[in-house]
Amino acid sequence: MDLASRRDLATHARSIAGRCAGGHGQTAPTQRGDHRQPIGQDHRKRGIRGFDTYKRIKGRKRHIFVDTLGLILTVVVTAANVQDRDGAKLLLEGLRQQFSRLRRIWADGAYGGDLIAWVWALRPRRKVCLEIVKRPTGVKGFQLLPWRWIVERTFGWLGRYRRLSKDYEYLTQTSEAMIRVAMIHLMVRRLARLTCF
Questions:
Q1: SS3 letters for the chain?
Q2: Structural domain boundaries of the chain?
Q3: What is the structure's pLDDT at 1?
Q4: What pLDDT, on the 0 to 100 scale, is given for residue 68?
Q5: Contact present, 51 and 81 (Cβ < 8 Å)
Q6: What span, in angstroms and rounded, lies between the C-alpha atoms of 182 and 62?
Q7: What are the 10-residue block averages of pLDDT along the chain, 197 residues in total?
Q8: pLDDT given at position 45
Q9: According to a count of CB atoms within 10 Å of the terminal CB, is the N or C end of the chain lower?
Q10: How much is the pLDDT for 10?
Q11: CB 28: neighbour CB atoms within 10 A?
């Protein structure tokens, strides 16, 4: 990349961030007053947000796709008002080109409905079956369900990281990157434990 195109990229990045094109740490005239307190509780805080009325979640949702060991294959962070089925479509879109050996996906009841047919039609060859793991009827309280606990365990591992314990990030891409970094750290620690004698 030559120097002129780097300058153009830097100018474009500064304009997106609300900075003057010339650099030198100046803010654009429309962005003055950023140092003041926010007007309301959610005024200009942390990027896209939403509210899921069913789960009563305010903020964002993390959709993860893990293998049977609980290691993350793909991750998507969306606003909380995005339904689970729509988030799963964003998450599983990569199945068209990746994970050719994958044959079965286990999910909870929120991912049922037309998503099962959508996943089946995702690839013309090497079809993938989406299997819904449901709770037994009449059971109250905690119930250990086969295969679903793997995802919950992964969320527990991620919750140990201070940066992921709350949603601090402004961009959803940054949240996804921090989840990947945390999983890389987990895998490296496991590999180091196995190779050290």
A1: CCHHHHHHHHHHHHHHCCECCCCCCCECHHHCCCCCCCCCCCCCCCCCCEEECCCCEEEEEEEEEECCCCCEEEEEEEECCCCHHHHHHHHHHHHHCCCCCCCEEEECHHHCCHHHHHHHCCCCCCCCEEEECCCCCCCCCCCCCCCHHHHHHHHHHHHCCHHHHCCCCCCHHHHHHHHHHHHHHHHHHHHHHHHCC
A2: 50-195
A3: 57
A4: 85
A5: yes
A6: 14
A7: 56 58 43 46 62 78 88 90 87 84 86 87 87 82 79 90 84 90 91 76
A8: 54
A9: C
A10: 59
A11: 13
CA-derived radius of gyration, the chain: 21
- Comparing CA positions, the residue from 103, 65, 57, 102 lying closest to residue 83 is 57
Question: pLDDT value at position 2?
Answer: 56
> Pairing between strand 129-132 and 104-107?
parallel
Can you read off the two tokens belonging to residue 136?
A: 């037994």
Residue for token pair 């689970």: 84
The two three-digit tokens of residue 78, written as one number: 């969306």
Residue with tokens 């654009």: 28
